Amino acid sequence: MQPHVDRAAVTVPARGGEPAPGPPKGRIARLKAFFGRHKMLLWWLHSTYALFLGVMVILFAQKGFQHARVLAATLGGALLVMLVVFRIFGHGEEQKENVHKTRGSTIRFLLITYLLKNLYQPMLFFVLPFYWKASSIDSVNGWFVFLLGVLALMSTMDIIFDRFLVRHRVFAATYYGLTLFACLNLVIPALFPNVQTIVTLLSSAFLSVVGFWLLHFPLRTLTTRRGWLILVSVALAFASIVYVSRRGIPPVPLYVLHAAVGPERLPDGRLAMEVGAVHTSRLGDLWAVTEVALPGGEGDTFRHVWRYRDGDFRQDVATEKAVGVTPNTIRLTSALRRVSLPAKVAGRWTVDVVTEDDQIVGRARFEVLE
Predict the structure, then answer these.
(1) Same domain for 35 and 138?
(2) Quick one: 274 and 151 in the same domain?
(3) In this structure, is residue 6 part of a structural domain?
(4) Residue environment code for 261-284, b if the CB has 16+ CB neighbours within 10 A, otherwise e
(5) In this structure, are 180 and 322 located in the same domain?
(6) Which residues pair with 330 in a beta bridge?
(7) Three-state SS at 269
(8) How many Cα neighbours within 13 Å face the side chain of 360?
(9) Same domain, yes or no, for 239 and 301?
(10) Three-class secondary structure of residue 250 per DSSP
(11) pLDDT per residue over 157-167, tens digit each?
């Protein structure tokens, strides 16, 4: 009969013939071992916590557009921190070596990146509800809200942020440039009311290229005339691309509070009846009434675009403008006459509120039944 052997007491030799290290001794050593074993889990737990804070920021953003002024300071802080990261630690493999050179450098890097994440998260989650309100998901500008949502989620995911966005200058510069562009569309009208949205959009595009340049290229490139010429040329080219693509970008901070269509209008400008569907046998003149919020002031003029299906019929109609029911709002009214309707009318209809520069602010939807 084989003698009993306590396997727990046997020291298993490690590779090289030396005994395997025993369990860590001391409270600090055990704590370090615990963090080492569960590093990924703790990363994801912190990301979940950051996402929860992002939701809180979204709720805070509902309190008012005036808080957008804080974004200006936050954007400047984020740029400064990013510049510090790449000036001190470098990027790519160089950064990896510098970060792990000493314990102090590792701690400094972790503290700086933690500060950076806490600058990005409130910025992106703050602007998200403004873009959501200014967009129509079933229109051409719905994709931009999705892009902002992805950027906001990335700011909460430590694995992506620490291993990619902070490690590589091109990723960091692109991420900052997109964030800068999205935030400036709110910051500019908050600081300078009554600015036309297209002016804000093009200014944001130009400045976002400047932000990208400051992060991606050495500052010495701006000490020469050639460097400035390239920067201005690239910024103007990007602003031109944004202008051509303006319909795909929500015109923040504008948004539609309420939009409806009906067969009759009351003397005070409201609809006598709001309909989501109307039968062709009862189809006559149609009225559209929309309430547009102007938190950044009245810098734009608007029109209604009546559209059948995906453009089988389209008619741009000038709107009557009146003061809205709530402060900083206007009421826009337009009519589509029965004689203007096409022969075939059954199907999906939309009425878009559009700026004079063709940016969609919001839309009303209704159905014509056979």
Answers:
(1) yes
(2) no
(3) no
(4) bbbebeeebebeebeeebeeeeee
(5) no
(6) 292, 323
(7) coil
(8) 23
(9) no
(10) coil
(11) 777 777 777 77
